[in-house]
Amino acid sequence: MVSYENPQVPHEVNVSRESVLAEFVRLATGLCLVVLAVAAVLYFCGGALARLVPYSTEQRWVGGRVLAPISEPADVADAARVRAYLQELADDLARHMALPAGMRPVVHWSDTDVPNAFATLGGHVVITRGLYARMPSENALAMVLAHELAHLRERDPISAVGGTASLALVLGLLGGDVEQLAPQVAQAVQLGYSRRAERRADDAAVEAIVARYGHAGGAAAVFEVLAGYAGPLRGATPTLLSTHPADDDRIARLKQAAQQWDPVRQPLRPVDEH
């Protein structure tokens, strides 16, 4: 009789040579990259489609409302004078920026010390007291306004809404927590896009202030001032310090744009203090 014994199975068979934790991290990282890539496609497609919405339609959706919180001023009369000055400056800059037909930006004043300026749906631009008080010249203030007008011209506000809405729709269909996840995913996807949009808005703003003043002097001062701001950032609205990074590269580019400026022959204009 022939005896038979089962051979010994090698101990390394079906055993990962990596640790379980390392393998999990690798798989989780891959999954996150796939999710982020899909989110990016959804965000950009939604944003691109939103830009095709006629501006007149956007205005009808919004009406005269400013879809962002605004702090009402204590001194209504003084705020009205400042707002009129800002509106006049914005109107003059708009004449140099080839805005879409029917787009007449409306500037609003918000009585908060946080230095902030942003464009929102329907052609509305919000400037805060904190930003206005910190601007060292009208040229710097004009740079901020022209930058926000450039966002309106490129339809960046409605593009951001369209991108976030497309993500929210898909997350809703998948059963995810739309309220929690959509803004976070949109922010992650938008980071690189925002940099390009910000640079584009900067370039358009420089062209506008050169057309108005004959030079780009004072443009870099906007972000030099904001770079030193260390106060609290409150509220859910975008801020100059979060969506408009005051990095060294940005300041250097704006200084480069003003290299032909002669401060003796072309002094900066003071902010109208009314």
Q: Can you tell me the number of structural domains?
A: 1
**Strands in their spatial order, largest beta sheet:** 1-3-2
Compute the number of strand runs: 3
Tally of DSSP helical segments:
10
Radius of gyration: 25 Å
The helix/strand class is mainly alpha
The pLDDT mean sits at 80
Largest sheet at a glance? Answer: 3 strands, mixed
> Which term fits the overall shape?
elongated
Query: Helix proportion of residues, in percent?
Result: 55-70%
In sequence order, what are the helices and strands, one letter per element? HHHEEEHHHHHHH
How would you characterize the overall build of this protein?
The chain is mainly alpha-helical and 274 residues long. It has one domain. The protein has helices at 20-51, 55-62, 76-94, 129-134, 138-153, 156-174, 178-213, 221-227, 240-243, 248-257; strands at 106-110, 117-120, 124-128. A three-stranded mixed β-sheet has the order 1-3-2. A hairpin with a 3-residue loop joins strand 2 and strand 3 (124-128). Helix 1 (20-51) crosses helix 7 (178-213) and helix 6 (156-174) packs antiparallel against helix 7 (178-213). It is elongated, with a radius of gyration of 25 Å. The chain starts with 19 loop residues before the first helix and ends in a 17-residue tail after the last helix. The model is unreliable at 182-192 and 234-238 (pLDDT under 50).
